[in-house]
Write a structure and sequence with these properties.
With about 150 residues, the protein is mainly alpha-helical. The chain has one domain. Helix content is about 75%, strand content about 0%. The protein contains four helices and no strands. Helix 1 crosses helix 2 and helix 1 packs antiparallel against helix 4. About 15% of the residues are buried.
């Protein structure tokens, strides 16, 4: 197994597990906002927690692999590089999802805004942690990553 493959696996697992933890924290902390709307016919009851866990792990690997692929093109270093990556990912993941939700579903704006804010905080935090861990791994091994993943 190559060093880059090991980095993807390690960072992917870490990011995926953090995704799971953050999603649980967000679900618990926002339940007072969402629970008054529990009778809307859009919710799965109960939610498919196994699928959510698997998807969070897959998303962790995707975030880590893409980060390593475009690493050299992201401005900044350390947490600032993570912040910039988080803004990029947040624009695609959170902003586009929020816009689509408003267009496609009859969901109260309060729920969309709550999902937008918590989603952006989550993705920014994940990307900052990923960047810091990746930078430490590079400096610990005395490696540079001039070529990115590819």
């Amino acid at each position: 197994m190559t060093v880059k493959t090991k980095k993807i696996l390690a960072c992917g697992i870490m990011t995926g597990v953090l995704f799971i933890i953050f999603d649980m924290i967000i679900a618990i902390s926002t339940s007072p906002i969402f629970s008054p709307y529990s009778d809307l016919p859009i919710w799965k009851t109960p939610p498919n927690i196994l699928a959510g866990t698997i998807f969070d792990l897959i998303n962790g690997f995707i975030l880590a692999a893409v980060y390593m692929m475009i690493y050299n093109g992201i401005p900044g270093f350390g947490w600032k590089k993570g912040l910039n990556y988080g803004i990029i990912v947040g624009l695609f993941r959170v902003v586009m999802t929020s816009f689509s939700t408003i267009v496609m579903y009859n969901i109260p704006l309060t729920l969309v805004i709550t999902s937008f804010v918590t989603g952006f905080i989550e993705i920014m935090t994940l990307c900052i942690i990923l960047a810091v861990v990746y930078e430490k791994e590079l400096s610990h091994r005395g490696l540079n990553d001039k070529n990115g993943l590819i």
